[in-house]
Amino acid sequence: xxxxxxxxxxxxxxxxxxxxxxxxxxxxxxxxxxxxxxxxxxxxxxxxxxxxxxxxxxxxxxxxxxxxxxxxxxxxxxxxxxxxxxxxxxxxxxxxxxxxxxxxxxxxxxxxxxxxxxxxxxxxxxxxxxxxxxxxxxxxxxxxxxxxxxxxxxxxxxxxxxxxxxxxxxxxxxxxxxxxxxxxxxxxxxxxxxxxxxxxx
Length: 201
Known about the structure:
It is built from 6 helices and 9 strands; from the N terminus they run ααβαββααβββαβββ. It is α+β, with helices and mostly antiparallel strands.
């Protein structure tokens, strides 16, 4: 597995579990190392004797947030920092990241003279709460609420921000919140309990 593929898998899993200061567990380098080892196992193909859905890898909130704190920064988009996740259970997750809104305004190519991001400016925490549904190798995230520094923002503005950060040659419009997506590494399902997730392959 190449370094690039490994990095993509790590970021994909982090995003799938979603973007929290809501009681985040203590972060340590040791837990970050544990998360990296688990990613390596998840990336391996299932042995022929293991049927899809029988391979289960538990991941804790602390491991994931430790990976964010100690390993993820080189893989994050410019202007995005300090991501944390709280796994609330029953499919619900809460996440926070610090976003540089000056960087967003500079990236915008729209000719509009009214740019709401310019009104925010600076590095500001963005909070998101929603439900992650996964089944048969496909995931979908349903947004419940979002705010910028405690001020609620409509879904359309959050979508614009996500689109800005997720654009690529293959996806020039970026990721769309409502669109279903394929789970990486032959993951069939992600079971979310309070403070932990189980990756089912």
